Description:
little secondary structure
Amino acid sequence: xxxxxxxxxxxxxxxxxxxxxxxxxxxxxxxxxxxxxxxxxxxxxxxxxxxxxxxxxxxxxxxxxxxxxxxxxxxxxxxxxxxxxxxxxxxxxxxxxxxxxxxxxxxxxxxxxxxxxxxxxxxxxxxxxxxxxxxxxxxxxxxxxxxxxxxxxxxxxxxxxxxxxxxxxxxxxxxxxxxxxxxxxxxxxxx
Length: 191
C-alpha cells in the first residue's frame, strides 16, 4: 500500500496488521475498529479520518498528518506518532500508554480521559489542549508547550514538566505527586 490514495475509504474492522504503507493517503476515511497493529505508516495522511476504536498497538506513524481525525477509544499503546500533526483531533478515552509523540502538534486537541502512562510528549505543542481526567503516570512532557491547556482532574505520579511552558494552564483538582516542574514557566497557572 505504499503511496496508495484511498480517499473516503470504508475500512471498518479491516485487519491490516504489519502492513507497510509509507505515504498512504486515507483522508476522510472510516477506519473504525480497524487493526493496524505493528503497521508502518510514516508520512501518511489521515486528515478527517474516523479511527474510533481502531487498534494501532506499536504502529509506526511518524510525520503523520491527521488534522481533525477522530481517535476516540483507539488503542495506540507503544505507537510512534512523533513529529505528527493532530490539530483539532479527538482522542477521548484513547489508550496512549508508552506512545511516542515527540515534537507532535496537538493544539486544541481533546485528550479527555486518555491514558498517557509512560508516554513521551517531549517538546510537543499542546496549546489549548483539553486533558481533563488524564492519567499521567511517568509521562514525559519535558519542554512541551501547554499554554492555556486544561489538566483539570488529571492524576499520576512522576510526570515530568521540566522546561515546559505552562502559561495559563488549568491544574485544578489534579493529583500529580512527584511531578517535576524544574525550569517550567507557569505564569497565570490556575491551581
